[in-house]
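dude i think i finally got it to work??
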Amino acid sequence: MPKSILIKEAKEKVKEYNKADIVIGIPSYNNARTISHVVRAVSAGLAKYFSKYNCIIVNSDGGSKDGTPDLFKETMVEDFDTILMEHPVYPVHKIVTPYHGIPGKGSAFRTIFEIGHLLQAKVCAVVDSDLRSITPEWLEALIEPVLFHGFDFVAPLYQRHKYDGTITNSIVYPLTRALYGKRIRQPIGGEFGISGNLVSFFLKNKKIYYTDVARFGIDIWMTTTAVACGFKVCQSFLGAKIHDPKDPGTDLVSMLSQVVGPVFNLMETYNDSWSEVASSVPVPEFGFKFEVATDPVRVNLERMVESFKQGVSDLVSVWEKFLSGDVLSELRRISSYNVLEFRFPKELWVRIIYDFSLAYYKKVLAKDHILKSLTPLYLGRTASFVNETMESTSSEVEERIESLCQEFEKQKSYLLSKWEK
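look at this
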């Protein structure tokens, strides 16, 4: 166990409470609009489904200026009688603490994990602080598989709009599924259930918290580590995931790099694990699936296709260092399509993602240059996906994503043949 990163007040609270069965972590940064709703839902879920267990909620805050920690402390469930069959045996306690280290979600998680470890918790769950769709039932879905069924890691399963989460749908899910052989649909979902044993395992790798994992790669690192290291994994259906509105000015180049970079880094870390995987298998699922309304996602096809064409015009000198002449010729060919005719074949997309991962691993160029040059290609593939699915139902869209996943698995032999050369 590394040296404690907890502040004095948090250590005193841990010492006072001594032990806990369940620890729920809520990392936050300026989430005053939503934190009270999240705390009420978590408290109600613990009281409703785990009334016989000693539970603690931890707010690991990144220096909020809008009063988020104060709202966390003050928020209570006013009327438990409307949701409870029996009165809780234990009161739900709270710990509020700033986190230390590199600013980011990973550092917040490290603080939550340390508190869970010190309290010898059987299960630790984490939920985002900007959720508008969380219900008490989410707690049951995240905790029960660990507490009662022996799982170490519970990933979330959401209902999402067909154009929401396109980085996950087009890169992260199909690539990690092909690599590690587990069909975890939302590997970077944000809400997770984790056994005490896996929490301890996560804390042992203290160096990781001084890398980009501490900033923005903690979700995919946890999912990949749990799978690659042989822990028992499953997923639970949570319904719709609706966040506080995001800044529309978010830089896509940075976002894509922050998501894809850790995936590529983990390919090197766990090469021995994924190189032995020949196919994928489903993971156990918990929860009752049902159709739910999702927030609409607006897309600008013209802008995406134009960005793709501009990339083909400007970035060939970069891409030719690691993409073959055949691939570049095909990119030039599809760049001649107009907006509504535009199609980016899945076979070409998979080949490109594998070539990018190889270039990243072999350091053909600076890693950030490689990742940034992926953006117009991603926009082109997304535009094609929108064109292909405009009239499709959610189940038909899922079938297309499944077909893409199968193509990733089919071409994995190409990746393996090039990896060590």
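The chain is about 50% helix and 10% strand.
im so relieved honestly
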